[in-house]
Amino acid sequence: MRYNAYNQPIGDAVQSFQQADKPSIEMLEGKYSKLEHLNTSHLDDLFELLCDTDNDLNWTYLPNEPIHDKDEFSTLINNRIHSEDPYFFAIVDKTTDKALGIISLLRINTKASSIEVGHIHYSPLLKRTRIATEVQYLLAKYVFETLGYRRYEWKCDSLNDPSKRAAKRLGFTYEGTFRQALVYKGRNRDTDWFSIIDKEWPNIKQQYEHWLDEKNFNSDGTQIHKLSIL
Known about the structure:
The protein has about 230 residues and is an alpha+beta fold. Helices cover about 25% and strands about 30% of the residues. The two termini are about 25 Å apart.
C-alpha cells in the first residue's frame, strides 16, 4: 500500500501512462471469422437472420424492439454505420462470407482508458460456435494490444442470464449491480457490471488461443475442452 505525505492511502503509480486510441479499423481477421466495420453490404444478410419473427426473442435485452420491416432496419443500420460511439462491426463467417451478427465498442473513454463491448446481436447461426468466441477474442486483443486500453467492460440487464454466463466464460469479472440504472422499453433495468483489466489479459488471451486451436475440436466441430478462464 502506498501513502502520501499526509499518511493517506493512495493508488499504485501508473508508469508511462498514454491515452488510448479510438477504434478505427476496417477489419479484424481470425481463423474462422472476420469483424468488418459495419457497412451496407451487410444489410441483406443481417436482415434475413436478425429480423425473422422466429428470432424476436433475441431482441429482448437490446435497446430496440424487434424490426421486421427492411426499410426500418436499413435506417437502423445506416445510423450505426456512421456512428463513432458505439463503433459497430458485422460478424462475418470466413467460409461463407456471410454476415451473421453485430457487435460494437462503446462508452469509449480514451482519457480514462476504458471501453465497453456491447450491442451484441448474434443470429441463431452464431450461437455456440467457434466464431461466437473468436470474435470476442479478436475484439479484446484489439482493445488491449492495438488501442491500448486498461479496462474492458461488459454490462447487461441483471435478468439476462445468458449474457452473464457468457461474460464469466469469456474471462470478465463480475463487479456488482447498479440498481435502477436505466429505463428502457418502458421497464426497469438493473445493470450488472463485468470487466477485464490489462494485467489480466495475457492469461485470458492464452486461454482463448488454446480453446480456439483446431486441435480442440472433433471432426464434427464439437469442442473437446471447454473454455473456462475463471
